[in-house]
Design goal:
The chain is an alpha+beta fold and about 210 residues long. The protein folds into 2 domains: about 5-30, no CATH class; about 45-210, Immunoglobulins (Immunoglobulin-like). It has helices at about 45-60, 65-70, 80-90; strands spanning about 5, 10-15, 20-25, 25-30, 90-95, 100, 115-120, 130-135, 145-155, 160-170, 175, 185-195, 205-210. The strands form 4 sheets. A 4-stranded antiparallel β-sheet has the order 1-2-3-4, with no helix packed on it. Strands 10-9-12-13 form a 4-stranded antiparallel β-sheet, with no helix packed on it. A 3-stranded antiparallel β-sheet has the order 7-8-11, with no helix packed on it. The protein is globular and about 55 Å long.
Length: about 210
């Protein structure tokens, strides 16, 4: 039985027929109760589940990083949900039953701050990945004091190393230490910036796929 909390026009919680009412983050909602599915293993249903799983597998190791990278889009949803929505539609590729992430199209940070210019990742020293980029501090909206946001994602191990706010935009380079277990694995590398006051974030740019030395 449903309970009306704020008069006839207010939200309600519980069940009324096949309608379910509730509240999330202070927002009243209603939804239709899901019907029983006689065959939950149809190809369209399995396709959606596998797309969902592929996207979540990619984002789960960087869930804490997304709280920074997508914080300005966590409006009536979590930062992870905002990142999931974008990457599900923009970065997922393949056909059933083989779905993968197009790493060059993925966004691990999103915002209006001026992004990096020509980021490139490389690995010449054991257990390290080095990022370089052009100093574009003179562009409108950029500052030499903007700080780096870096992700090194290892799909083989489904692990990631992420570094926040260690190096300035003006430096043009930063080296990241990765676990010894990453040796000879291919990693996907991303670079973004965050303003010195922490308010603005840039889109992340793909710096390339690198084999760890």
């Amino acid at each position: 039985m449903g309970t009306i909390k704020q008069g006839i026009l207010g939200g309600f919680s519980g069940n009324v027929g096949n309608v379910v009412g509730g509240s999330w983050k202070g927002i009243d909602y209603m939804r239709i109760r899901a019907a029983r599915i006689s065959n939950p293993q149809t190809e369209p249903q399995m396709t959606q589940r596998m797309k969902f799983a592929a996207t979540m597998r990619f984002l789960q190791p960087v869930s804490q990083f997304l709280k920074i990278g997508w914080k300005n889009y966590a409006i009536k949803m979590t930062a992870t949900n905002a990142a999931f929505k974008y990457n599900f539609h923009a970065a997922l590729q393949g056909t059933y039953p083989n779905f993968t992430i197009d790493y060059a199209k993925a966004l691990l940070a999103h915002g209006t701050l001026t992004p990096a210019m020509n980021p490139v990742a490389s690995s010449a020293v054991a257990n390290t990945v080095t990022f370089t980029w052009n100093n574009n501090s003179d562009e409108i909206g950029a500052s030499p004091l903007d700080k780096t946001l870096i992700v090194v994602y290892n799909a083989t191990k489904n692990q990631a190393v992420y570094i926040a706010e260690l190096t300035d935009r003006a430096a043009g380079t930063q080296t990241v230490t990765v676990p010894g277990s990453f040796k000879a694995d291919t990693v996907q590398c991303y670079l973004a910036f965050i303003s010195i006051d922490g308010q603005l974030v840039s889109d992340s740019l793909f710096a390339g796929a690198v084999i760890v030395a």
